[in-house]
Amino acid sequence: MKETTMSLLDPKEVSIDCPKCKRKNNRTIGSLKENPVVNCACGNTITVDVRYLVRELTKVDKKLGQIRKDFERAGE
Ligand SMILES: [Zn+2]
Question: In the predicted model, is pLDDT for residue 61 greater than 90?
């Protein structure tokens, strides 16, 4: 079930804030799972903890509960 939740989040775009220049780097969860290293335009590289990110997203994104419900219903 955990894997299902993660793949549901794949198309979701998140902004990774660069700690150096505060620039927002937009990535999808799916692309971060493939490559968790974000190269910022300022030359800084940010390594994203995707598991942590997904956990936080699951916590804040209340819509996810509904998506999961729909998903489970579709599987019936
Ligand atoms: Zn930067």
Answer: no
Could you tell me if 16 and 27 are in contact, meaning their C-beta atoms sit under 8 angstroms apart? yes
Cα separation of 12 and 64, whole Å?
11
Do 20 and 42 touch, CB atoms closer than 8 A?
yes
Q: How far is the CA of 44 from the centre of ligand 1 (A)?
A: 5
Ligand 1: distance of its center to the CA of 7 in Å? Answer: 28
38 vs 42: CA distance, rounded Å:
11
**Is 21 within 8 Å of 46 (Cβ atoms)?**
no
Q: How many other C-beta atoms are found inside a 10 Å radius of the C-beta of residue 68?
A: 15
**Model confidence at 38: pLDDT above 70:** yes
Cα 15 to ligand 1 centroid, rounded to whole Å: 12
